[in-house]
Design a protein that fits this description.
There is one protein chain. The protein has about 300 residues and is an alpha/beta fold. About 40% of the residues lie in helices and about 15% in strands. The chain has two domains: about 200 residues, TIM Barrel; about 80 residues, no CATH class. The radius of gyration is 18 Å and the shape is globular.
């Protein structure tokens, strides 16, 4: 959710009854501080911060999170042992995003309070295992005793219900909120998301860090380089700097990196975050009453 989940979206989701998360991966420390403080002013309800552990300045981010009294941190893309103990000493709940049962067990051993089991369908940075949510969710729930939150391919109440039938105790929704009014992503990117069809996204850059992207000029360039056996160094040169910002935040739909999940094929309109939460809960409750009813 880099370049999409700032304080406006996080506060709107929390105010609507969800747990809003600020995506700190695209933020310098001073920007993260500003977003945390603005989110505090915009909601009296709990919210959290997602911290991708592979990004620079993590120590500064952690320090800001602790000083500002953030109560919940979701970590991803790294070793949960690195910061979990530090955060928990300050009374902060820690949830780690995993793509396999093995990593879920490591997160539990590191002291995490819960894990997010993120399936292969998810947008953005993804696991190398390519395990789909339908398989990953029950596998992870059987491998750990801490709560499991399902992610990857979830944008509707019916999908939330399915995840909980598979053993999850909650869901994390990303791509659906990219196409929200409060998301900080560029309008052109939001419109591209709602125009997406089945098969318009694909996992790429496995030699670097796997990431699911919408097919565009940049994506085709990366795929062509991978097919001809390009080195890791050449792929890094093609990727360059700020490629995700160029696409998702600045609106360059051809040269930018457009990260989104497969579930974009089911997203057809840009809505206020509160409406999205309301729709998911309503569909979930309808599904509980009549799970076999065809849509």
């Amino acid at each position: 959710m880099i370049w999409a989940s700032g304080w406006k979206l996080a506060a709107a989701v929390s105010n609507a009854g969800g747990l809003g998360l600020i995506g700190s991966g695209s933020m310098y420390p001073d920007v993260l501080l500003e977003h945390i403080r603005k989110c505090k002013s915009a909601t009296s309800r709990p919210f959290g911060v997602n911290v991708p552990l592979l990004y620079p300045d993590i120590d500064k981010h952690i320090d800001i999170i602790i000083r500002e009294g953030v109560e919940i941190v979701f970590t991803s893309a790294g070793n949960p042992k690195t910061w979990t103990a530090v955060l928990k000493e300050k009374g902060i709940k820690v949830v780690h995003v995993v793509s396999s049962s093995k990593f879920a067990q490591k997160a539990e051993a590191a002291g995490c309070d819960a894990v997010v089991a993120e399936g292969f369908e998810a947008g953005g940075h993804n696991g190398r295992e390519e395990t789909t949510s339908m398989v990953l969710i029950p596998a992870v729930t059987q491998s750990v005793t801490i709560p499991v939150i399902a992610a990857g391919g979830i944008a509707t109440g019916r999908q939330m219900l399915a995840a909980m039938v598979l053993g999850a105790e909650g869901v994390q929704v990303g791509s659906r909120f990219v196409a929200s009014e409060e998301a900080s992503s560029h309008l052109k990117f939001k419109e591209r998301v709602v125009q997406s069809q089945e098969g318009d996204t694909m996992l790429s850059m496995k030699q670097l860090t796997p990431v699911r992207l919408i097919r565009n000029k940049f994506f085709r360039e990366i795929v062509a380089a991978e097919q001809r056996g390009a080195s890791e160094e050449e792929l890094k040169q093609i990727l360059g700097r700020a490629r995700a910002k160029k696409g998702m935040y600045e609106g360059d739909m051809e040269e930018g990196e457009l990260e989104i999940g497969q579930v974009s094929a089911l997203i057809h309109e840009i809505l206020p975050a509160a409406n999205i939460v309301e729709n998911i809960i309503r569909e979930f409750e309808e599904g509980l009453k009549d799970p076999l009813k065809k849509l």
